[in-house]
Amino acid sequence: LTPGKPLTPGELLALDRRHVWHPYGPMPGRRDPLIVESAAGVRLRLAEPAEGRRELVDGMSSWWSAVHGYNHPVLNDAARGQLDRMSHVMFGGLTHEPAVRLAARLVEITPEPLEHVFLADSGSVSVEVAVKMCLQYWRSLGRPDKRRLLTWRGGYHGDTWQPMAVCDPDGGMHHLWSGLLPRQLFADAPPPGVDALPDPAYEAHLRDLIARHAHELAAVIVEPVVQGAGGMRFHSPGLLRVLREACDEHDVLLIFDEIATGFGRTGELFAAGHAGVSPDVMCLGKALTGGYMTLAATLCTPRVADGISRGELPVLAHGPTFMGNPLATAVALASIDLLLGHDWRQEIKRIEAGLRDGLAATAELPGVRDVRVLGAIGVVQLDHALDEAGMAAATRAAVREGVWLRPFRDLLYTMPPYITSDDDVARICTALHAAARAG
Ligand code: PLP
To answer: 3-class DSSP state for residue 49?
Structure first.
C-alpha cells in the first residue's frame, strides 16, 4: 500500500475480500461488493459500472437511516461546524451543548412521560441499555426474579447478546446461539394486517402470557407496528394498546424498539403514535442522525429512572467511550430540525402513494405471495426463500434498473430516503418488479 495513492478497484476488492468482514459475511469474502465512490441526494456513485450503471438510486437509505439523502448541505454544515469546535470529548464528568440540546429535543418530540435519555452508540447497544434499565429497575425494587423478557416471534432487535436473545428464534440469524443466550419468552408472531383491530384470540394469547409470567417478567419488548429485519411484517397498532394495558395490569415494563420505525418512516413520527401509546422505555437509532453517524438513544420514564436510583447501585452502570459524541449529537439535532422543519407527513404520504401505485402490478406476478406498503416502506414477499444465487440474481436485476436493493430470505423491499422524487420511487418499483421476476 502506497500512502496517498488511491487503490484501483481491483486492488481494493482483493484487499476487501482478504481482510474485511462485511455484515453477515464469510471470511474470506465470496461475493464482491460494489464499490461506492461518493453519494449525493438519493444516488450512490460507483467506482466502476455494474450491470451498465455507474449511479444507483438507493432504495435502502443505507439500512433505513439516510432519510434526508446523502451529502445534505444542512447536515454537512452541522458536522463541519461541530468539527471545528470539538469532535469528541468524554462524557463522564463532562457535558456539552449538542448532547444536552439533543436529549431535550428528543424528550420534546417523543411521547410523554419519556423524560430521560441515554445516548448510546448503536441501535443494538441502545437495546442492551434498555434491557439493563429494566433489569436494574426490578433489582432496585427488591424483585430480582423479574428478569426475563417477553417478545413476539418475527422480531429483530440487533446483534449483541441481549438483543439476539429477543430476535426471532426460528427464522432469525441467531439460532446458532440459542443454547447460550438468556432464555426469553416468545408469543406467537402478531397476525398480519396494519388496519385490522387486534385479533381477539391473539389479544387473549398476549394477555395470558403476560399474566402467567408476570412474576418473572422484567419487560415486554417489541418493534411497534412494523417488524423489520425479522420479516418486514406489519401488524395492528391496537396490539400496542393491548400490551400497554396488560403490562400496567401486571406490573411489567414495556419497551418499544423504534430504531427502524422512528422519525416518520411509517407515517407517524414514531410508530407508537399509530396507537397513541407510550412505552416505559424507547430505543431510537438509524435515522436519528439522518444516517450520517452512529448514534442511538434509549429514553425512559421518571418511574424507571427513580426506581434505579433507589437501588443498592443507584446509577445506571453503562458508559461507552463515545457516549454523547458531539459530532453525532450535533448532526442528530440538525437532522431532526430538518425533518420537522417541513411537511414530512406529506412527503411520506407521497412516497406511500407512489409505492402503492408502482407495486400494484408486482402483486400479480407468479411467485409473489404478498405486496404491502406502509409509509415509506414497500415490501414484496415471494412464495419462496431466495438462495444465494437467487439473491444475487435479484440484486443484479435491480442494479440493471439503476437501483440499489438488498433482498433477504423471501423478501424484496425498499425503505427509500424521504427526498426520493416521484420518478425515482417509480424507478425503485420497476427494480423491485424486475428483482421479483429474477429471484
Ligand atoms: N432494532 C431494530 C428494530 C433494528 O431494525 C435494528 C437494526 O436493523 C437494530 C435494533 C440494531 O441496530 P444497529 O444495527 O444500529 O445495532
So the answer is: strand
For the stretch 351-388, pLDDT in tens is 999 999 999 999 999 999 999 999 999 999 999 999 99
Residue 61 marked as a ligand binder: no
The correct CATH number of 75-340 out of 3.10.310.70, 1.20.1250.20, 3.30.470.10, 3.40.640.10 is 3.40.640.10
User: What is the phi-psi region of residue 106: left when phi exceeds 0, alpha when psi lies from -120 to 50, beta otherwise?
Assistant: alpha
Q: Is the minimum distance from the CB of 415 to ligand 1 under 6 angstroms? A: no
The distance between the two most distant Cα atoms of the chain, rounded to a whole number of Å, is 66
Give yes or no for residue 122 CB within 6 A of ligand 1. yes
Going by CA atoms, what residue is nearest to atom 2 of ligand 1?
157
Matching residue, cell 431510537: 284
The residue among 247, 273, 268, 308 whose CA lies nearest residue 118 is 308
DSSP letters, 249-281, are HHT-EEEEE-TTTTTTTTSSSSGGGGTT---SE
Catalytic residue status for 306? no
**pLDDT of 166 over the 90 cut:** yes
353: Cβ contacts below 8 Å, ≥ 6 apart = none
Tell me: the pLDDT tens digits for 176-231?
Answer: 887 899 999 999 999 999 877 899 999 999 999 999 999 999 999 999 999 999 99
